Amino acid sequence: MDPILVTIAGALVKEAVKPAVAALVKRVRAKFGKGTAEEDVLEAALESPDNEKAVQRLANRLAEAERSDPEFGGELRELWETAKVEITLAQNTQVASSGGVNNSITGTVHGKVVQARDITGGITFH
User: Fold this and answer.
1) Could you give the CA distance from residue 95 to residue 10 in angstroms, rounded to a whole number?
2) Does any domain span residue 120?
3) Which end of the chain, N or C, is surrounded by fewer C-beta atoms within 10 Å?
């Protein structure tokens, strides 16, 4: 089983109140459809987010959906990247003391990044 799908399934049921995760849940609901066995698996996991077997069943259904519909799989993983950032930011609340600085980069970074407080002189990238 793909560990990312297990993580997505767990986040779907435990973090559903966060807007980005709610969008993920909405997309999964749309994919599974009303009155389906897949919907039943999703609802069971949502009702019992600490039930590891229910979450694993959901991860299995997500894997099946991803295999049968690679486009959905791509959407699922793209939505997950957004949701993961939201979850991480909520879990990693940073507080700077007086005069302090907190730097945080989330998501995929392309290119060069500098995180700093006080810089004397210039910065050159090579």
Assistant:
1) 28
2) no
3) C
CB 51 within 8 A of CB 14: no
Query: What domain count does the chain have?
Result: 1
* Helix, strand, coil % in the chain, rounded to nearest 5: 60, 0, 40
Task: Quote the pTM value.
Answer: 0.65
- What one-letter code names the amino acid at 87? I
Spatial contact of 104 and 92, defined as CB atoms under 8 Å apart: yes
What's the confidence (pLDDT) of residue 39?
93
Name the residue with tokens 């009303």. Answer: 34
Q: What tokens were used for 9?
A: 């399934």
Asked whether the CA dihedral 72, 74, 78, 80 is positive or negative, the reply is positive
pLDDT exceeds cutoff 70 at 94: no
Which residue do the tokens 């980069």 mark?
A: 105
Whether 100 is in a domain gets the answer no
- 33-46: pLDDT as tens digits: 999 999 999 999 98
Task: Please give the pLDDT value at position 95.
Answer: 54
Instruction: Give yes or no for a contact between 78 and 30, defined as CB atoms under 8 angstroms apart.
Output: no
Q: Which two tokens stand for residue 17?
A: 């109140």
